[in-house]
Specification:
Distance between the termini: 40 Å
CATH topology of one domain: TIM Barrel
Bound molecules: NADP nicotinamide-adenine-dinucleotide phosphate
Order of helices and strands: EEHEHEHHEHEHEHEHHEHH
Strand content: 5-15%
Structural class: alpha/beta
CATH superfamily of one domain: NADP-dependent oxidoreductase domain
Oligomer: single chain
Length: about 280
Amino acid sequence: MKDINKDSYYELYNRVRMPVVGYGDAQGRTINEQVKNYLDAIDAGYRMFDTAFIYHSERALGIAIKESGIPRENFFIVSKMWDTAMRRGEVDMMRQFEESLKRLQTDYIDCYLLHWPVIGKIVDAWKTCEKFYYTGHVRSLGLSNVKRHHFVEIMRNCDVLPHVQEDEFSPWCMSNDVRKFDEFYGIRYISMMSLCRLKYESEDSILRVIGKKYGKSMYQVVLRWNLQHGVCPLPTSHNSKRLRENLDFFDFELAKEDMSAIDALNFEGPINWDPDLFDF
Ligand SMILES: NC(=O)c1ccc[n+]([C@@H]2O[C@H](COP(=O)([O-])OP(=O)(O)OC[C@H]3O[C@@H](n4cnc5c(N)ncnc54)[C@H](OP(=O)(O)O)[C@@H]3O)[C@@H](O)[C@H]2O)c1
């Protein structure tokens, strides 16, 4: 753990290297603000970026990567197929995928996810994504907003096992059930919404108390806790100082008792919608 830094990576089960930390979706109302936010993140040292067709930030990411002057292969881009195309079928999925490549100004995506498990469509949608994988247009595949049974459906009917899962992971929702499943099958967990509840923490919050012990903010504590659980966090911030601070969690190690104290906050309480009860 001591040798890990912001440039370290997890090796996915197909040997593709994915950074240990990524940057979440662009912040900003206009494309110029989004590009600026991405450039700040690149300047801070982030090389993995999580976007999606539906976020309307792929274009800004493509521009920022070009403007940075850093070679494309130094970045790890995650993007996602949105529901409408999955509902309409393969031709629409191919069109949406091509549009994503165009917006991102690239000819491949490092990790491509089904954004939401559209009921009755997940197997067909996955088979189309397998084609992107086999032709080298994506380097790894994954699912988002899913439960164990979605993986089982894919394992029963498709060829490529997801390389990653992107879902909620915070001290209050550790998603232990599905993470145990992922661990068993070698699927890497990317965590979303890890920081967004922290603004509600009280002055005497255990997370602040632990932070004081290490001279770190509770945001850095939660990011470190992600890392020590083998999870890849995706912090995001409007603020260029805060997005830099969010990369400063590699120079300390949470003791076992502090990891346990954070784990003890978990009540498996998601803020996200339940994919079995909600569909777009
Ligand atoms: N696959 C999916 O369906 C899905 C769903 C949700 C999210 N995601 C991904 O996960 C990423 C992260 O989730 P999220 O959007 O919920 O964001 P998050 O990173 O969990 O939380 C962002 C919030 O935390 C604040 N913040 C961040 N760092 C801070 C710091 N050091 N000090 C104080 N406040 C800080 C930000 O405020 P300021 O901006 O003011 O700093 C913002 O309000 C998203 O951007 C997206 O890429 C994916």
